[in-house]
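Morning run. Coffee first, then this:
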Amino acid sequence: MSDGAEAAGLPGWVMTFADLMSLLMVFFVLLLSFSEMDVAKFKELAGSVQNAFGVQAEIDVKSPPKGTSLIAREFSPGRPEPTALNTIRQFTISSNLNTLDVEVNERAKELEEQEKRAEEEAERLRQALLEEIEEGKLLIRREGTEIIIQILEKDSFASGSAALEASFVPTLGRVGSLMTSVSGAIAVSGHTDNVPISTSQYRSNWDLSAARAASVVFELLDTGVDPERIMVSGHADTQPRVDNDTPENRALNRRVDITLLTGKQRHGSWANPPEGSEPLTVEPVASTTP
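And here it is:
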C-alpha cells in the first residue's frame, strides 16, 4: 500500500475511542436497569422547574395523587426516605373540577330552598285570598321562585277598558296589604287576547295591556306598597297562557299578572342612587273616554 493510501485512512485511536463509548453506554444502561426511581423526588425536581415559570395552584389532599395511566394507578415513593419537602405534587389540568362540583351543588341546594319558601308563601296567599279565588277573580301559582297573582278580566275590567270596576277595588286593596307584608320586587304586567283593538283611546292591544297594568299599580300604591319595588309592563297578546282558539281561552288570556320576585328586592340599578341625585317621577295623566 502506498504512503498516500495510509494518509487517507482514519487514525488508529478512533477504534479505541469507539469501544470506550460503547462500554460507557452499556455501563449506564446497566445502572438504569438496576436502579429504582423515586417518583416523589423526581416530581419534586420537576415541580421546582415548573414553579419557576408561572403561578402554580396548591390543593390539600387526604390521599396520594392518582396515576394518569392504566399502568400507574397511583404514585408512591420507591423507598420510604425523607424528601426535601414533606409533600407530594402532581400536575393536573382540571384542579378546579371538585370546586366547581361543590359550587354547583350548593347553588342547586340554595335554589331548592328558595322554591320551597316560595311555595309556602304562595300557599299562605291562597289561604288569605281564598274567597276571591273561589269567586274566579284571582288565580295564584308559583313558577320557580316567583309567585304570580293572576287577575282575570272577570269583574275587574270592562271589555276594551283599562278602568277598574269599583267592585274590584277592595280586592286589590287586600292584595296590596299582603304585598306590603312580604319582601321582594313586584312586576305588574298586562296581557290581552289576540282580538285586535283600535279606538281613539287605545291604538292597539299594547296600549290597553299597559294601561290596565298601570291601573292596578296605582291601586297597589294607595295601599302603601313601596314604589321602588314595582315595575309595570304591557305585553298585548305576546304571552298567552293558553291558545286563543275559544272564547273561554281568550278570557283566561285577558289578565293582569302581579309577580312577586322573591329573589330580588327592587328593580333597576338605582337602588342606591348617587348622592345629590333626585329620582325621576312621572305623574299620571288624567284622560276621559269619549
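The CA atoms of residues 132 and 171 lie 7 Å apart. Good start to the day.
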